[in-house]
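Q: Entry one of two.
A:
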Amino acid sequence: MREPLLFDPRGRSKVLPRSCQGRIIKAVGIDLVEIAKIEGFIERYDREILALVFASEELDASRLAPKAEEYLALCFASKEAIGKALATGLAEINWFDIAAKLDSSGRLSVNLLGSARQKANELGLQQWEMSWVSWQHHLLVRAIAYQ
């Protein structure tokens, strides 16, 4: 039997992680963000204001990233994609309750806290598969939630 494949927006397919195989997809969210928009936020606002949107670990990690605006744009698009998958947008949850993280290999993951974790639990969303692609000064993030 062949392994299930997961679409990769960079044009390649990859094997669905074993932890997600056999699980039911419950929700999907997608978001596209212009990096310049986030760059403008960084230029206009101090850390205290940015902390209303970004988790502290996201802000800390962005300082170590080669391009802080790209890292925070990825975090922003992740929050939007998760909010859509939770069927709330971000109206019922705190922005900073979704913390995105990019590891050294470019793998995107999210940690849900507080109101975001509560909403995911209510919907039976137990595991997230995140993917992203960057092109022409934009970032696209896709979030798939499994039961």
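Q: Entry two of two.
A:
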Amino acid sequence: MNSESRIEILQNSVRRLLVTNTVENARALLRRFQEVDSFNAYVHERMPPVLLAMLIMFLISLACVTGIVTLLPDMHSALILPMLLILPVVLAGSFLIQIYVFFSWLEGRSMERSLAPRRKAPRGVLANWVRSKLNLDLGPVPAVPWLPAAILLFMPLLTLTYSWRGAAMTFIALGILMPIAYAWVDR
């Protein structure tokens, strides 16, 4: 029995790291968006800033692709074909990860709005700092699929930082400031 529970714990740990769990969570989030009226109404009422945030996320995904394009061919010419094959994966993957985290965050914000006095989720360090300095409520911290985000978002941005530091810092700043600007518009 003890070995079975250890195997289950190990399987659950591995499953959390794999993309399949993220895909299942994204499907569940999409289902909740379709079925929960308060979440759907929250997003639709704020469509202009949501679309602007999605545009910024798409630009960050393009920056991820640019990081790969500017670094890998300079390393070795044999990397050009594999680079061309992974570019669509990085573009789509980084964009979908950002969308997943953003809509998870929006879901938390909409839940807090609908359950206002009854439920307040714990805030992260950045959210507490923003609240004290800017008087903005960022809302609850969303779940982040760290392994796919590291591979499809952070590593390409790191390659962009290596090859084109100014552009990388601009897109990283956009990624950090976008939720703060959204929270400011959504007061």
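A: Comment on entry two: The chain has one domain: 2-185. The first helix runs from residue 2 to 17.
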